[in-house]
């Protein structure tokens, strides 16, 4: 009989992030979509270019190291959806 145990809070495992994945910073922040994975000039290793909309509806883009983010489910529960009416969150 085979048995296995795992630690649900083990954060040492790395999950491969691909273009189209949704991520959040490990320190918190908005859900972001990965638009590029790979090398960036003058930076060693693989980097992620992520895009998201800020609280004012403006498109933002930033570069992050893969170990700075958590991969998230692509869908979100209805309770976490914010409705925007004329630029204001309701």
Please tell me about this protein's structure:
The strands form 2 sheets. A 5-stranded antiparallel beta sheet has the order 4-3-2-1-5, with no helix packed on it. Strands 6-7 form a two-stranded antiparallel ribbon. The chain is 0% helix and 43% strand. β6 and β7 (88-89) form a beta hairpin. The protein is built from no helices and 7 strands. It is globular, with a radius of gyration of 16 Å. With 90 residues, it is mainly beta. The chain has a domain at 22-73.
Shape: globular
Helical fraction equals under 10%
User: In this structure, how is the largest beta sheet organized?
Assistant: 5 strands, antiparallel
Radius of gyration: 16 Å
Regions with pLDDT < 50 over 5+ consecutive residues? 1-10
Strand content: 35-45%
Mean pLDDT: 79
Oligomer state of the chains in this structure: single chain
What class, by secondary structure content?
mainly beta
Q: How many strand segments?
A: 7
Order of helices and strands: EEEEEEE
Number of helices: 0
Distance between the termini: 54 Å
Major sheet: order of its strands? 4-3-2-1-5
How do the strands and helices of this protein lay out in sequence?
Layout: E1 22-25, E2 32-40, E3 43-53, E4 59-65, E5 69-72, E6 84-85, E7 88-89
Antiparallel strand pairs: 1-2, 1-5, 2-3, 3-4, 6-7
């Amino acid at each position: 009989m085979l048995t296995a145990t795992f630690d649900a809070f083990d954060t040492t495992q790395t999950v491969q992030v691909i273009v189209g994945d949704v991520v959040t910073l490990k320190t918190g922040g908005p859900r972001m979509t990965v638009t590029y994975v790979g090398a960036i000039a003058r930076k060693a290793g693989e980097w992620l270019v992520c895009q998201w909309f800020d609280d004012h509806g403006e498109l933002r883009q930033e570069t992050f190291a893969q170990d700075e983010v958590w991969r998230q489910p692509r869908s979100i529960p209805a309770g976490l959806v914010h409705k925007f009416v004329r630029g204001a969150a309701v």
